[in-house]
Amino acid sequence: MSIAIKMPALSPTMEEGTLARWLVKVGDKVAAGDIMAEIETDKATMEFEAVDEGTIADIAIAEGTEGVKVGTVIATLAEEGEDPASVKPAGGAAAPAAAPVPEAKPAQPEPVEGPAKAVAPSSTDSARPSTGSGRADGDRVIASPLAKRIAADKGLDLKAVKGTGPHGRIVKADVEGAKPGAAAPAVAPVQAQDFGIPHEVEKLSGMRKTIARRLTESKQQIPHIYLTVDIQLDALLKLRGELNAALEGEGVKLSVNDLLIKALAKALLRVPVCNVQFAGDELIKFKRADISVAVSIPGGLITPIIADAGVKSVSQISTEMKDLAARAREGKLAPSEYQGGTASLSNMGMFGIKQFEAVINPPQAMIMAIGSGEKRPYIVDGALGVATVMSATGSFDHRAIDGADGAQLMQVFKELIEKPLGLVA
Asked: In what order do the strands lie in the sheet with 35-40?
């Protein structure tokens, strides 16, 4: 009996994905564990393995197809001894491959990569200015198939929605924010402007769309408060040198970032009112500090997690972080390794950035932004001298964390770095 191969849920929150590439074709034999396809989720491109043996009898969804819902039949497998030519595609007649979502016209230029960047619209529909009301030819509603599907799921009357697409066409962005029986809020769309300048159009990946959507939501929905401290690094750098000398035989080399991860985790445990998450009419208080660490990867940013960093040794944090970062750049992280976390740390010091304000990674309630360490005039032992100093800025969700509590966390974070023996005690 034939087996239906369905679009898998590669993370707990995944609802749809892009079938980026097929690695098999009709007629190929596969065994359990063979890689059949690459699927792009909102976080990464992941390999999809076969769980059964057989022969590929039908491929229902073409590679490059976006918006494939979890559970959709994407291929059919003929079992051992079954004639693939006689196998009916799972679910009945062969389902036509879904057409890729139309590519949008050039929007505003993509910002420089980094957690404190500006964001572009996340809609996959065209974002040109509205020239109409969403109707044409009498009462006939003009809307994209995706907008119609979202409207049906939400119980929206499309006649009440104002379209912002070409010629008043209703697009995804128009219906996402609308309430049943009400029109979507009027949002000024971004208009393509190239002014005849030579350029190329690059289609947004699922990751880039998710970054744009989540950071837009973060800045629109989370009231950020920013607190900055200057921190003397000389004692930490001296300790790091001594620890690396002691750990050389074990093949461990600590980075400053490893020590900062430990410092943030310990600070959160000492100031637990900041190790929280806002959840509507509830406040979630975490019992341990799981630190999400921003890692730049091709086409985006991902935040692998050092779980329970407050109780791990700095050498263990270093070893885990090197492994996570390497696998993040290869797209080989499991969802459990980058989803969750109680707070984030983003370090742009290696780029010479003196200070920046990072955007909170929802649903978390804080992120620590680290600038570069540099020689500055500084008061040392009551006298003006020169010290290695870095600026750290905490971004806090003011719904969950009061300014005084955030200030206390920054104070403890500073103390742990300037008197770093507490990090290895």
From this structure: 45-49, 35-40, 16-22, 65-69
- Please, are residues 170 and 161 in contact by the beta-carbon 8 Å criterion? yes
Which amino acid is located at 183 in the chain? Answer: A
Residue 114: CB atoms within 10 Å: 17
Nearest to 190 by CA among 264, 122, 286: 122
Q: Give how far the C-alpha of residue 311 lies from the chain's centroid of Cα atoms, to the nearest Å.
A: 26
Q: How many CA atoms lie within 13 A of 1 on its CB side?
A: 2
Return the DSSP state at 190.
Answer: P
Comparing C-alpha atoms, which of 216, 287, 276, 285 is closest to residue 398? 276
What are 337-349's pLDDT values in tens digits?
Answer: 998 999 999 999 9
Neighbour tally for 355: CB within 10 Å: 16
DSSP string, 53-111: -EEEEEE-S-TTEEEEETT-EEEEEEPTT--GGGPPPTTSSPPPPPPPPPPPPP-SPPP
Q: Which of 322, 184, 340 is nearest to 251 (CA)?
A: 322
Number of H helices, E strands in the chain: 7, 19
Average pLDDT over residues 126-148: 54
Which of 167, 199, 224, 398 does the annotation list as catalytic? 398
Classify strands 343-347 and 366-370 as parallel, antiparallel or unpaired.
parallel
pLDDT digits (tens, 9 = 90+) for 204-263: 887 788 888 889 999 999 999 999 999 999 999 999 999 999 999 999 999 999 999 999
Place of tokens 């590929």: 56
| pTM listed for this prediction | 0.64
Nearest CA to 76 among 62, 60, 64? 60
At 68-108, the pLDDT tens digits run: 999 999 999 888 878 888 887 865 433 343 334 333 333 33
183 CB burial (10 A radius; 0-12, 13-18, 19+):
buried
Catalytic residue list contains 398: yes
Distances in whole angstroms, Cα of residue 235 to Cα of each of 8, 187, 311, 389: 50, 51, 22, 11
Q: Can you tell me whether residue 141 is helix, strand or coil?
A: strand
Residue with tokens 């969750």: 340
Nearest to 208 by CA among 300, 105, 100, 120: 300
